[in-house]
């Protein structure tokens, strides 16, 4: 019998696979389906935030409340997404050397 043999009821296994947390959601924050919520203290600041959201095509619900502290955390996280780091590919052993000598990389600079 192989190691990959499932020792249980098939119905139970299928129910377990179906349920769970969906991490591959199509709904993103800042769209019409999931607008972000921002609270500001003044009308002038509301116009600034509206200009920023229109520039980046973000949908937001902006409320003005002078008694509460300004809350723009969701907007800041959408605007400052980290960029993926791309590393330069290292040459394989049999590729020509990058120094321009014409030799293979394994014979020259490896």
What are the main properties of this structure?
single chain, 110 residues, alpha+beta, two-stranded parallel ribbon, 2 strands, elongated
Shape: elongated
The Rg value, from CA coordinates, equals 27 Å
The ordered string of helix (H) and strand (E) elements is HEHEHH
Distance between the termini: 47 Å
- Average pLDDT taken over every residue: 81
Kindly report the spatial arrangement of strands forming the biggest sheet: 1-2
What structural class do the secondary elements suggest? alpha+beta
Per DSSP E runs of 2 or more residues, the count of β-strands stands at 2
| Unreliably modeled segments | none
- Beta content comes to 5-15%
Instruction: Please give the count of helices.
Output: 4
What composes the largest sheet? 2 strands, parallel
Would you kindly provide a written description of the structure presented here, covering whatever features stand out?
The protein is of the alpha+beta class and 110 residues long. The chain is 30% helix and 9% strand. Strands 1-2 form a two-stranded parallel sheet. The model has no long low-confidence stretch (mean pLDDT 81). It is elongated, with a radius of gyration of 27 Å. The chain has helices spanning 10-18, 43-55, 73-79, 105-108; strands spanning 36-40, 60-64. The protein has a domain at 29-81. It is built from 4 helices and 2 strands.
């Amino acid at each position: 019998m192989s190691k990959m043999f499932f020792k249980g009821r098939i119905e139970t296994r299928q129910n377990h696979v179906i349920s769970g947390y969906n991490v591959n959601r199509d709904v993103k924050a800042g769209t019409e389906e999931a607008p972000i919520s921002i609270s500001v203290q003044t009308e002038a600041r509301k116009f600034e935030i509206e200009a920023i959201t229109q520039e980046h095509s973000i949908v937001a619900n902006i409320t003005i409340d002078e008694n509460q502290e300004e809350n723009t955390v969701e907007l800041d996280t959408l605007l400052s997404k980290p960029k993926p780091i791309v590393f330069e590919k290292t040459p394989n052993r049999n590729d020509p050397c990058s120094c321009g000598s014409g030799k293979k990389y394994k014979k020259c600079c490896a």
